[in-house]
Amino acid sequence: MPAPTIAIDLEAIADNTREIVRRCAAAGVGVFGVTKATGGLPLVGRAMLRGGVQGLGESRIGNVRRLRRGGISCPIMMLRIPSVTEAPDVVRLCDVSLNSERTVLRALSAAAEEQGRVHEVIVMLEMGDRREGATAEELLPLCELALAAPGLHLAGLGANFMCASGVLPTIPTLEALAA
Fold first, then answer.
1. Contact 58, 78 (CB under 8 A)
2. Who wins on pLDDT, 161 or 85?
3. What is the pTM of this model?
4. Cβ distance 120 to 158 under 8 Å?
């Protein structure tokens, strides 16, 4: 019996990505394509790039390595908080990462300095999804740390919705995020 296979329609991925990018651009929103469901398959990443994404997102450093080895040179975002031990690889392979821990920010800054780079960070705020993020009280000190760290650039703030526990992005939760 032959092994199971999955057929991936790369043109459909490119076309669907193009439509998503078009709709988001009309609202002033840029798009990163996420390749984690395909294990960082470079062919899928290239199809999303043909569709117009600004970069790619991944949650596993091994998948990022696969993308880079496959010739992908666009910006790549680490979609989860890296571990301290991953900091050197994250700085070397990823352009931006999501963060909410002081020790990780310090490790990323040190790794960036050692590599002569500046690493972009997005500080995450916990909005009830319980996936990752700082409390409201921790947010400003983390941002101050990122702003002061020589190897980091604070690229923005972020929050998760509908990821771990299914918290919906309602008007009240988005107003709380804006506040």
1. yes
2. 85
3. 0.88
4. no
